[in-house]
Amino acid sequence: MGQELSAADLIINPDGSIYHLNLLPEDVADTVITVGDPDRVPEVSKHFDTIELRKGGREFITHTGHLGKKRLTVVSTGIGTDNIDIVLNELDALVNVNFKTRQVKKDLRSLNIIRIGTSGAIQDDVPMGTILASSFGLGMDALMNYYMHELSGDEHSLLDGIKTHFSHFKGISPYITAADNGLLNTIGIEMEKGITVTAPGFYAPQGRQVRAKNAIQNLIPLLSSFRHSGYRITNLEMETAGIYALAKVLGHKALSVNAILASRVNHQFSNEPAKVINKAINMVLEKL
Ligand SMILES: O=P(O)(O)O[C@H]1O[C@H](CO)[C@@H](O)[C@H]1O
Ligand SMILES: O=c1cc[nH]c(=O)[nH]1
């Protein structure tokens, strides 16, 4: 018999749903689309043929339904890898823990987790309007300091290169995880590819300066000049690396698709964000 998870470790609401997502185990499809913005959930589910449930709490809004024969769940994560910690752990518990016995199931389910997010590009040849699939998620936040995780050979070699390139960054311990290869080569097949940096903020952690002065000067040129084994850093956002790393730890498959709204090298921000996001949604849904 496996260990029984305590009421403080796995929090189940009185109606049997999980603490933050407010979902029951049967509410989660095998393919889960995550978006940051709760208002983006209906923008995805409006393409479904049927919607069987709409639930939520806080920034975590979920719709589950069918597109043709495929059952899909779309859930909003809100902003940041602290929220990704909640969403990935709760999705995993919903499918891999028996809520009656509070024990981990013997046969584990592996979800396909596809993020459709917005992002800023840091390469000249990645213009606004590009739809980019993240080959790797490079985390500059602290989430993975708290989890045991292992790196593949490719991830190790890239991380060594990154640590050398950014050796003068103080107090940051980057982590890197590859996309699921199968999802990258199907859903991402026609998309631009690159390493996506996940930042622990939108302003100074992404090289923006409004009034508070930035401690790291020239962050964007530093990121964009990194080259290793044919890879380069293409874009910045706030969730991908956490999703990739926790999905791998928990045995799920993940891909992040980025609607590029900003060109940080040309100092531009899109005046038609909805159109770019919709293009990303359509490109993902037509491959499912
Ligand atoms: O559009 P979403 O998916 O929220 O993604 C991006 O937009 C937010 C910042 O504006 C961050 O969450 C960032 O990752
Ligand atoms: O530049 C950008 C655009 C969208 N989201 C981000 O996190 N950064």
TrEMBL record:
Instruction: Give start and end of each Nucleoside phosphorylase domain.
Output: 32-266
Which GO biological-process labels does this protein carry? purine nucleoside catabolic process
Q: Which GO terms describe its cellular component?
A: cytosol
Per the record, the domain of life is Bacteria
Q: Gene3D superfamilies of this UniProt entry?
A: Nucleoside phosphorylase domain
InterPro entries for the chain: Nucleoside_phosphorylase_d, Nucleoside_phosphorylase_sf
Among the GO molecular function terms of this UniProt record, one is: purine-nucleoside phosphorylase activity
| Catalyzed reactions | uridine + phosphate = alpha-D-ribose 1-phosphate + uracil
Task: Kindly give the Pfam families that the UniProt entry links to this protein.
Answer: PNP_UDP_1
Task: Give the EC number(s) listed in the UniProt record.
Answer: 2.4.2.3
Q: What top-tier enzyme class does this entry carry?
A: transferase
| PANTHER family reported for this sequence | FI09636P-RELATED, URIDINE PHOSPHORYLASE
Q: What name appears for this protein in its UniProt entry?
A: Uridine phosphorylase
Task: Supply the source organism's classification.
Answer: Bacteria, Pseudomonadati, Bacteroidota, Sphingobacteriia, Sphingobacteriales
